[in-house]
Amino acid sequence: MRRRFVGAVAGLLALLAGPAAEAQQACRAGTVYLTIDTGWGREAEQIAAILRERHVRVTLFVADEPTFKGSSSLSEGWGDFWRARAAEGHVFASHTLRHWYFQGDPSPGKVRYASRRGEGSTVLDQQAMCAELQAPLDKLKALAPNAQTLPLWRAPGGRTTPNALRLAAACGFRHQGWSANGFLGDELSSDASPNRALLARNLANIRDGEVLLMHWGVRSRKEPFSNVLDALIGGLQEKGFCFDTLSAAGR
Questions:
Q1: Is there a domain that residue 123 lies in?
Q2: Rounded to two decimals, what is the model's pTM?
Q3: What is the CATH classification number for the domain harbouring 159?
Q4: Distance from the CA of 86 to the CA of which of 78, 92, 95, 175 falls in 20 to 30 A?
Q5: Which helix (H) or strand (E) is 233 found in, with range?
Q6: Residue 135 belongs to domain spanning
Q7: Cα 36–39–42 angle (5° rounding)?
Q8: What's the structural domain count of the chain?
Q9: Domain presence at residue 130
């Protein structure tokens, strides 16, 4: 009886350990964190389909930017798209409302914020900074009430200032950039950096723990990077990498 009991317990432990062992083997190279900024949006549906087919969940940094549709990325015209991404389990964070650039600290507690599209500039204080970071998440939630949001933000272009970081932290937002090998290159010129070169570079250089950056489409790029995204994700998975969303603490 005792022998049978011990055998049953051993069998149960092996059964329970099976999925964990399989998961560990699947992630033998480590975990990477794909993040996507709004951008032009031209390849958004293609990218979403690849993520779905590859069973990859990512972190989406949202701003209300101009898109190829003629509407901005957090307008009602994008509502179905964001609702679908929320339903798939992707998580969201702030990329600022206007997607302007932080350009210096004119005085204590203030930061200069300027458009690169000729829309002007302003100086943000604490209240205005909090509003700039929270507004895109509020607009997103109005479109996709079930969207899971994180207390993270990413400055446009990754450009921060000491005051921008301090003001954001006081609003409860932690800045999240990308890692050393995480810039996938979708903003680069297709002539100087064709897809085949970017794919080879990324597959060779990406390491465990990298925070990867791309966009839902970049207007100026003639050869869409999304055309090699499936090969990139598949190649990383074959090497033993798993993909995961960022946590509230970021990386």
A1: yes
A2: 0.90
A3: 3.20.20.370
A4: 175
A5: helix 229-238
A6: 30-243
A7: 100
A8: 1
A9: yes
